Amino acid sequence: MPNVTVYNQLGESVGEIELNDAIFGVEVNEHVIYEVVKNQLANKRQGTQSAKTRAEVRGGGRKPWRQKGTGRARQGSTRSPQWTGGGVIFAPKPRDYSYKTPKKIKRLAMKSILSSKVNDEEMIVLDKLSFDNISTKVAKKVLEDVKAAKKALIVVENKDDVVYKSFRNLAGVEIAEAKNINVYDVIKHDSLVMTQDAVKKIEEVFA
Question: What is the CA radius of gyration of the chain?
Answer without folding.
Answer: 27
